[in-house]
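QA checklist item 7 of 12: single-chain prediction sanity check.
[x] sequence parsed
[x] length recorded as 374
[x] structure emitted
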Amino acid sequence: MTGTGGAREPESRPNPSGAARAVWDAKAPGPGVGPGGAPAAIALTPILAARYRTRDLEAIQAAAPGARLVSVGFDGHPDGPLDDVEVMLRGRLPAEAFDRVLSRAPALRWVHSATAGVERVLTPASRARGLVITNARGVFSRPIAEYVLLMMLTAARRLPQLLELQAERTWQPLEARELRDVTLGIVGLGSIGRAVGALATAFGCRVMATRRRPDAGADAADGAGDEPFLGTLMLDRVLAPEQLPELLAECDFIVLAAPLTEDTRGIISDEAIAQMKPGAWVINVARGELVDERALARALREGRLGGAVLDTFLEEPLPPTSPLYDVPNLIITPHTAWSSSRVLDRSVGLFADNLRRYAEGRPLVNVVDPNAGY
């Protein structure tokens, strides 16, 4: 990927630090040293398992005229110099590769993560540099919410059993369940959790949720990448994280939509499963590390849960030798809940909007709190 030229030599500017949390308020000029306050150079890593399309590169270039674009591979090796790179669009780049890029990019001040999770960006090296981190909050909310409702309907309408009967050529009607008789518990009421809750509300579910700040309300703005209409979210209760046992005891479906932090790691454990309603289903669309996979497999083999849906795992890709493939009443999908024909457009559009904000000295959207981890 070659640049368009026109970038000036980087000026001597302090690296962002704690003060950069203000993220270039509206009174400040754009921090970029390229034309019109745009960054001199932008590093682009592969995002969403896809190559950049011509229109993606054109959108990025239009938002940052004159910026040189540097392609960085999954191994962290660039196709050009990184010394004047101010901004990085990061996809599924391993933390080690990210740190290698960081060590060679002294002018880097802002990293936009094309994923909602940022645990591989908040490395000790990036924290020490005080980088501004933004994420893709809102970009994936709709397809993930639709995936969750698909799986809830699959369980409620007993689709796996019906498919087994078809394979056996057996005519045996089964009694199903209406979603208006279901209580849904959402662990993590961010943009994905709210989108799930809104669609569940439309089906008549009773919806409960846990949230780090339960008094913040359910109508907080979604991420900037989200579409404006997802329906009305009606919540029966919003609980603090320490009230998770109360949610587990009441809910027929527990959806994990929380970020990976030290507080959420292993949140679905033997102890948590023992607190769940008999016959409950667990659906994980967040991070594999939220679930103790061995504890979940034991509970499913022993019939203590109705079932589970895992779209994310401790090890990805999940190897064919994994014992999880043989666990009864476990639906496995290959980290595809986010997938949709629209997500790449939304992802690039969000980054381009933030590039314009950067050049104009306006606050960036979706800024991550490094202390909270999201």
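[x] summary fact logged: The CA atoms of residues 249 and 277 lie 5 Å apart.
[ ] second reviewer sign-off
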